[in-house]
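Let us work through a complete example step by step.
Step 1: write down the sequence.
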Amino acid sequence: MTQPDLSCPLRALLAQQPPAEPSPRRLDISASGQPPRLLHKLDGAADLLSISKTKLYGLLRTDAIPSLMLGGQRYIAHEDLVTFVDQLRAEAGPWTA
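Step 2: predict the structure and record it as tokens.
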């Protein structure tokens, strides 16, 4: 195994640190090869969660899912949808037979 070139201070610093693990929050690539949208309109967010728009409006009213207004239109960040589902899974606990 060859030794890294440590003549550069940055290389020396990087050589000391373990390789970074991928972020668990990185955006997954869809089947089309494109990353998901960063912001979703409410109807798209409801489709992604497989719930009705009425249920989504209730979740927004109780601040279970944060949203933002942009140009008179309400949006939900993709990351907030992922966080919401993660919280639901954590609260549900493991499945038992």
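Step 3: interpret the result. The helical segments are 9-16, 42-49, 53-61, 78-92.
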